[in-house]
Amino acid sequence: MLNYYNLELTVAGTDEAGRGCLAGPVTAAAVILPRSFKSKILNDSKILSLKNRELLKSQIEAEALTYGVEHVFMEEIDEINILNASILAMHRALQKLNLDPEHIIVDGNRFKSYQNISHNCIIKGDGKFMSIAAASILAKTNRDNYMEKIHEEFPAYNWKKNKGYPTREHRAAIEKHGITKYHRKTFKLLPDQLKIEF
Predict the structure, then answer these.
(1) Separation of alpha carbons 139 and 195, rounded Å
(2) Euclidean distance between CA atoms 63 and 188, whole angstroms
(3) Where in this chain does the record put each RNase H type-2 domain (predicted)?
């Protein structure tokens, strides 16, 4: 069972999805949950089934006091780097909240101060605190839905399945077909050693 961070404060949890991908945006969410929020299955989005992620997405969107989701796209990632893009996505998600948090809790170990609101970075926070876990659910489900849509435009890369992550299949498609407008051009899209020619 995950915990609340601090019942005395209005706390926003924030997390991102897609940081290690070769294609598509990095997506962040910020969530403020009511103190009454309960869930037996809420956890880090990466360890949940698709069915449970979708159930939780609906519950979080219905019951959260406020939430925001934001994509930062490939061109901006290439311009400012993935770490800065991840933090920017979290800041933009926080901007969408219609309630000002008194404190922000962030999954991971890197963040830049947002509007002089106090914050804590928590490694593996999405497995410890409800609002970060809720943000991880919204970030992942919204990003996955986006990748499934652009899969229809470029089905050879199978983004519907790999969501833009560097799977063997995805790298093979890049080698065969080249890159698309959705690929991050500053990322190492192929390993240095390609297939040996026989």
Answers:
(1) 35
(2) 40
(3) 9-198
Binding residues: 15-16, 107
Number of domains in the chain: 1
CATH number at residue 49: 3.30.420.10
Asked if residue 178 belongs to a domain, the reply is no
| Position 70 in a domain | yes
Q: For the range 73-77, what are the long-range contacts, defined as Cβ-Cβ under 8 Å and sequence gap of 24 or more?
A: 73/25, 74/23, 74/24, 74/25, 74/181, 74/182, 74/183, 74/184, 74/185, 77/25, 77/26, 77/184, 77/186
At 30-40, the pLDDT tens digits run 999 999 999 99
76 by Cβ neighbours in 10 Å (0-12 / 13-18 / 19+) ranks as middle
pTM above 0.85, yes or no: yes
Range(s) of the domain holding residue 121: 11-147
For 116-144, b/e burial (b = at least 16 CB within 10 A) is eeebeebeebbbbbbbbbbbbbbbbbbbb
Evaluate if residue 193 carries a pLDDT over 50. no
Binding residues for a divalent metal cation, as ranges, are 15-16, 107
Give the tens place of pLDDT for each residue, 127-145.
Answer: 999 999 999 999 999 999 9
